[in-house]
Write a structure and sequence with these properties.
single chain; alpha/beta; 14 helices; 44% helix; 405 residues
Length: 405
């Protein structure tokens, strides 16, 4: 009996396998590394993220080019319209047709959760730099997801603890009815109750609600000391303005559980003064943040970056360095390279990436300045306290992430 036909068949099969695998290997090794900025370009988060996030990613690509060798980077962008189905459609097209290697930004937690799950299936990294739901490092964690800036646990817990310590122990929540708001209310409520506080009531509203008369009157009638805004962007701005019009302050404190520089700019210091909140980034905090802000402002008609913009820059740069170190865009391998040692970041300081995907760094308790304290446009924050990274974020053992042993 001759074994030649069998050997020839095996050799032919092996050659076929090599041929089938060659395009994927070639795509991984050649051509530009494409970074997709998936953002809200025209809705309630457009000022927090939007065009500024694209500029931030471009700045990261330019800085990486100085050290990249032969690796080329291309930035593409799209508007997810705050709709998970739209975000998924864009992400699928980018992965299937455009060879996009990673997706960054992702404001709107519902969109982020959907896209992160797709990226897990495709073994590509989701850089959820502008997404707040703590589920991304909890029950929905993935070996290909990094949550870079903050989350609902950090925002809600730190703010609730700080205000409860200052006597504000009874709260009424005004909550945007999707993943972000639900998680903010849940995490802030848990911290408030742990500090001896109580929740007097809550009202949910749709994204881009506009009119908050009914829930604000309900909050006023609840007897709560604090109106907690578990929303952000245009909804938060409108709620603060209308709360002032209804005369809720100063009898009630207003706690913004997710406040950004662009929101304060839109509100004006007269309306926003005295608000306390936590943030991981402020443009005027260090020499590194000021240098980045100057470059950003030159391309954004004088606008200073929000923490979302800073997160896009830092996450994109760290990812590109991870690709270089891993010599691949395969998500699990890139994240392994990013976790190898602490990242010394000019905007967020020392950053470590945990097994659950949480990027850990210091966060800060700020208060909005009065008009008299401000020296000019965007001089809005005064630092009250630093919250170390190991205290700022939920302990990994408590998040329910299935990746954590």
């Amino acid at each position: 009996m001759s074994f030649r036909p069998l050997r020839q068949a095996l050799e032919a099969g092996f050659a076929c396998l090599l041929a089938l695998s060659a395009p994927a290997l070639a795509q991984d090794a050649a051509g530009p590394v494409k970074v997709g900025v998936l953002s809200d370009m025209s809705g309630p988060f457009a000022d927090q993220a939007g065009t500024g996030s694209v500029v931030a990613a471009q700045l990261a690509a330019e800085d990486f080019a100085k050290e990249a060798g032969e690796i080329k980077v291309e930035i593409v962008s799209a508007d997810h319209q705050n709709k998970p189905d739209v975000g998924l459609a864009v992400a699928r097209k980018w992965l299937d047709q455009d060879s996009v290697s990673t997706i960054v930004d992702l404001p709107n937690s519902a969109v982020a959760l959907a896209v992160a799950n797709l990226m897990r299936e495709r073994h590509r990294v989701a850089l959820a730099s502008s997404s707040l739901t703590s589920d991304l490092t909890g029950k929905a964690c993935a070996p290909t997801t990094v949550q870079w800036v903050s989350d609902t646990w950090a925002q809600g817990s730190a703010t609730a603890r700080a205000i409860a310590e200052r006597g504000g122990k009874s709260w009424y929540f005004l909550t945007v009815d999707y993943a972000l708001g639900q998680a903010l209310e849940r995490d802030a409520s848990a911290a408030l109750k742990a500090a001896g506080g109580t929740v007097k009531g809550a009202t949910k509203h749709p994204l881009n609600a506009g009119d908050f008369a009914s829930p604000l009157l309900a909050a006023q009638g609840s007897g709560a000391q604090v109106l907690a805004l578990a929303n952000t962007g245009a909804d938060m701005i409108n709620a603060v303005k209308q709360a002032a019009e209804f005369g809720l302050m100063p009898d009630m404190r207003v706690a913004a559980l997710f406040l950004q520089l662009s929101d304060i700019h839109a509100l004006g210091l007269k309306a926003a003064q005295g608000l306390q909140f936590t943030s991981a980034f402020y443009w005027d905090r260090t020499d590194g943040t000021r240098a980045f802000a100057k470059r950003f402002a030159e391309r954004m008609n004088g606008r200073m970056p929000t923490e979302n913009h800073a997160g896009v820059y830092s996450a994109t740069l760290a990812y590109l360095r991870g690709v270089r170190a891993a010599a691949t865009v395969e998500g699990e391998k890139v994240l392994a390279a990013m976790r190898e040692k602490p990242i010394e970041d000019p905007l967020f300081g020392t950053v470590t990436i945990r097994q659950d995907g949480r990027a850990v760094h210091d966060v800060f308790l700020f208060e909005v300045k009065t008009p008299a304290e401000s020296k000019g446009a965007y001089d809005y924050y005064k630092l009250l306290a630093t919250v170390p990274g190991d205290k700022a974020f939920r302990p990994m053992s408590e998040g329910g992430c299935p990746l954590v042993k």
